[in-house]
Design the sequence.
């Protein structure tokens, strides 16, 4: 028997962490269950509500300065307590009749409803366990008789109906045989008196007999019939008691069965903590050794590095300590498990159900964490090695040695510049880097180096805006892990367009031939369909009729300034003509008979018809160059008679630069921002981006580079 009593004493003492109020950090006193299922002392609820009330009703600076808020709470006035406890308490007449209470357990605001504190259940099960803990803690401290004349005798019984403790003589006097009091329920000496039947706080004359599964709280039949729980799913108290007790018992049995595993993992955590301590001290000593070799310039950096090491060590040790405490609570007779075992001793169904639900969720969470054990931190400090090999001028940027972080590599194929610059890079150890720093700077024509601009990036791509036109920019990137920095990547040089990007879409109305051309819904891509209609038109060649081009233009015209746009011609395209044309010339093309606008009569059509040998006007209201069969055909001019010089490989992306004011158009290879061909053009009318297709072909307009563009392509 003595052994059992000793075990009970140890068991009840080991669960002290579960019996501490989150507000006052002391043992619970008359705990109440909040709607969030956390418990808090009755007096703590009142004090917190008083604090809120005082914060909204500061009278004057004199009253505010005479005492601290805590002193005001130590002696609350009775009128305030009555006002807070009264149903429907509110701060003022303008606020709704509800009380918002900040739960100190979960740090969320919970609504106490119109009844305020009166609408909360007392946690009698927790109160009983706290009382058993107090008795185990004070051991020999006796509970004295409440009815004895001084000096009182030690009590031997406590009456649950009278809420008083009695010695043998007083019990006989106040509970005589043959009276109603003789039938009272009595227990061993205790100071924890609770009602035999749990009553509904909403309907004070009704006993609790059901459990609301939605609100997770006991209710009475009136709550279900016409109260706040009328539309909620409820179950009988006996069913809820049986279900929760079975689940809780099963989870506790599982944890008890894994006690050996828990002890092993705690031992492993203790070893990891020792190893972390040793490695941290070793790293600290090595850092001190290196810093002692340096002079006054290193003093500031030394303290910075030591703080980083100590902070990392403390953070890891704190994580390990927290993990150890969590697992300590999973041992039998300790913490959470011990508390759960005490809850299982509760025989009153209503009291058990109101406590067991939240406890079961915590037990289930602990069970899940046990199945996938992983140390909370790393023990190695290999990344905290100080590098002293740098030159003296770099000491101001001294950081931890870059151990194991590879140099990022900029992906030239996926990096480009248009209206903005899009820089993509690849890092072999992407998961090890916390962040990246993208650096860029302008390169002047005389190769004068400008200072680097820095952008911190979390991912492996970035859109850089506000770049100057027709300039070279250098880009490089480096990786960071904590304070550790990798070397910079190889620089990428990009050339910005010679003018602002001109945004437009294909015009689906003006001259658009939907029999031959297929335009997508976004109107940024057009394809030529070599179908049956073209075959029929080709038959007319025998009688002198030529198959015509199908034109499509941009939906926005240009009347002044410099503009640049780019597009891609699909490699399978047979014949595509690209350039600019004036509004009056387009009217002629789109409304004249087809035989008058056949390729043979069009200058710069790209056909080997001989028309290009003619000396065309140096300034005409349109300029079109021919692209097709993976070639870029430069129109013939008097200065170049070599055919091979006029045929170039087709660029991946083609850019067009129109200077309206100077009447000049240029064609660019976008990959290298190199001008392939330029000439004068008559800009006396509105100019439009113009395209023409014959046979199979496709044109895709370049999409402006924005943050949305980046997100879309990352998803792809």
Sequence:
């Amino acid at each position: 028997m003595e052994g059992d009593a000793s075990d009970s004493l140890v068991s009840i003492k080991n669960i002290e962490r579960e019996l501490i109020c989150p507000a006052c950090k002391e043992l619970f006193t008359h705990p109440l269950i909040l709607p969030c299922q956390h418990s808090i002392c009755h007096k703590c609820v009142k004090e917190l509500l008083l604090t809120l009330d005082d914060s909204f009703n500061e009278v004057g600076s004199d009253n505010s300065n005479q005492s601290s808020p805590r002193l005001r709470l130590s002696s609350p006035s009775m009128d305030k307590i009555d006002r807070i406890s009264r149903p429907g308490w509110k701060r003022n007449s303008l606020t709704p009749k509800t009380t918002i209470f900040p739960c100190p357990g979960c740090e969320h605001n919970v609504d106490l409803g119109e009844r305020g504190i009166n609408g909360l259940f007392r946690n009698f099960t927790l109160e009983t366990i706290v009382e058993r803990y107090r008795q185990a803690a004070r051991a020999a401290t006796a509970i004295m008789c409440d009815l004895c004349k001084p000096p009182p005798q030690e009590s031997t019984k406590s009456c649950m109906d009278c809420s008083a403790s009695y010695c043998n003589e007083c019990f006989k006097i106040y509970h005589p045989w043959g009276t109603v009091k003789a039938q009272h329920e009595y227990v061993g000496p205790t100071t924890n008196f609770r009602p035999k039947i749990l009553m509904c706080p909403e309907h004070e004359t009704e006993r609790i007999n059901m459990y609301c599964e939605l609100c997770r709280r006991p209710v009475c039949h009136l709550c279900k019939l016409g109260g706040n729980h009328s539309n909620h799913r409820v179950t009988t108290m006996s069913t809820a008691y049986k279900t929760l007790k079975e689940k809780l018992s099963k989870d506790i049995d599982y944890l008890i069965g894994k006690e050996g595993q828990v002890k092993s993992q705690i031992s492993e955590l203790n070893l990891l903590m020792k190893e972390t301590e040793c490695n941290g001290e070793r790293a600290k000593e090595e850092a001190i050794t290196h810093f002692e070799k340096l002079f006054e310039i290193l003093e500031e950096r030394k303290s910075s590095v030591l703080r980083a090491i100590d902070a990392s060590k403390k953070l890891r040790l704190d994580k390990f300590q927290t993990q150890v405490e969590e697992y300590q609570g999973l041992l039998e007779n300790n913490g959470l498990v011990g508390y759960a075992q005490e809850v299982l001793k509760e025989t009153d169904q209503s009291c058990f159900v109101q406590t067991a639900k939240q406890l079961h969720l915590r037990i289930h969470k602990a069970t899940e964490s046990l199945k996938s054990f992983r140390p909370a931190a790393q023990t190695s400090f290999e990344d905290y090695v100080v590098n002293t090999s740098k030159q003296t001028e770099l000491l101001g940027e001294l950081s931890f040695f870059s151990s194991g972080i590879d140099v990022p590599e900029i992906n030239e194929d996926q990096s480009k510049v248009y209206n903005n610059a899009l820089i993509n890079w690849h890092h072999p150890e992407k998961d090890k880097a916390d962040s990246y720093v993208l650096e860029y700077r302008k390169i002047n024509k005389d190769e004068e180096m400008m200072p680097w601009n820095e952008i911190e990036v979390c991912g492996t791509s970035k859109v850089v805006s506000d770049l100057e036109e027709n300039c070279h920019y250098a880009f490089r990137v480096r990786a960071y892990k904590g304070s550790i920095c990798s070397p910079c990547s190889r620089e990428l040089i990009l050339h910005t367009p010679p003018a602002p990007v001109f945004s437009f879409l294909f015009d689906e109305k003006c001259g658009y031939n939907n029999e031959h051309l297929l335009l997508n819904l976004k109107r940024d891509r057009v394809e030529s369909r070599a179908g049956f209609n073209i075959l029929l038109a080709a038959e007319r060649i025998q009688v002198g009729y030529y198959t015509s081009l199908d034109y499509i233009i941009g939906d926005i015209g240009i009347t002044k300034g410099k503009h640049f746009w780019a597009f891609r011609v699909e490699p399978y395209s047979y014949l595509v003509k690209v350039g600019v044309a004036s509004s009056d010339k387009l009217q002629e093309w789109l409304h004249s008979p087809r035989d008058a606008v056949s390729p043979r009569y069009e200058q710069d059509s790209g056909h080997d018809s001989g028309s290009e040998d003619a000396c065309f006007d140096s300034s005409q209201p349109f300029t079109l160059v021919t692209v097709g069969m993976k070639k870029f055909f430069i129109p013939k001019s008097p200065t170049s008679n070599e055919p091979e010089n006029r045929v170039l490989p087709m660029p991946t992306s083609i850019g067009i630069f129109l200077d309206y004011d100077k009447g000049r158009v240029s064609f660019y290879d976008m990959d290298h921002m190199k001008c392939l061909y330029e000439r004068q053009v008559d800009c006396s009318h509105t100019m439009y981006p113009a395209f023409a297709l014959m046979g199979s072909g496709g044109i895709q307009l370049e999409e402006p580079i924005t943050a949305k563009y980046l997100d879309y392509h990352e998803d792809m």
